[in-house]
Amino acid sequence: MRKLANSELERKSIEDFKQAEKTPIIIILDDIRSLHNIGSVFRTADAFLIEKIYLCGITATPPNKEIHKTALGATDTVAWEYAKNVLEVIDTLQKESISVLAIEQVENSISLQEFEPKSGQKYALVFGNEVKGVSQDAIKKCEGTIEIPQLGTKHSLNISVSAGIVVWDLFQKLNY
After folding, report:
1. What is the pLDDT of residue 155?
2. Most buried among 5, 16, 126, 156, by the most CB within 10 A?
């Protein structure tokens, strides 16, 4: 085996990325404190051709040096929009027939491995604050909640790790 050089990876240009057919997933980040988490989610969104990211509440927006450290240019490729109120974003997306799901530990959540996305359906995934998670008001507005199974002593994952796990799972279920 030989490690591939960057020139061999056939990466898309920014313009090619913008023109490419997107994965029917939107990410909503609500009250994310860590600029590194925000940048990491942008990088994950770029990797899987995610349609858009909504940055809500106290979530910082590009351009920002600390976001750029982990995003590595993904803020130039992935479409994003700031909205102060996550509840308004959820309402708007639902009016567009987008299924909005919180990623949180709640009663009657569906385990990630059991969630089966419907072909032709666009999904928006709400990820909440590093300490408080997705707000109860946002959870009430969502059509459902997906929970990542965890078997250890901790009861949560880093938000950027959670986003990577959920986006990959839905991406592979939609595409393979």
Report:
1. 86
2. 126
Tokens of 118: 């419907």
Task: Report DSSP letters for 80-103, one per residue.
Answer: EEEES-HHHHHHHHHHTTPEEEEE
Q: What is the pLDDT of residues 102-128, one digit of tens each?
A: 999 999 999 999 999 999 999 999 999
Strands 123-127 and 23-30, sheet pairing: parallel
Q: What is the DSSP letter of 5?
A: P
Q: Report which secondary-structure segment, H or E, holds 136.
A: helix 136-141
Rounded to a whole number of angstroms, the CA Rg of the chain reads 16
pLDDT tens digits for range 138-160: 999 999 999 999 999 988 999 99
Omega cis (within 30) before 63: yes
Task: Dig out the tokens for 93 from the structure.
Answer: 């997306």
Structure tokens at 25: 């997933």
Asked if 174 and 23 touch (Cβ cutoff 8 Å), the reply is yes
pTM: 0.96
Among 171, 41, 40, residue whose Cα is nearest residue 115: 171
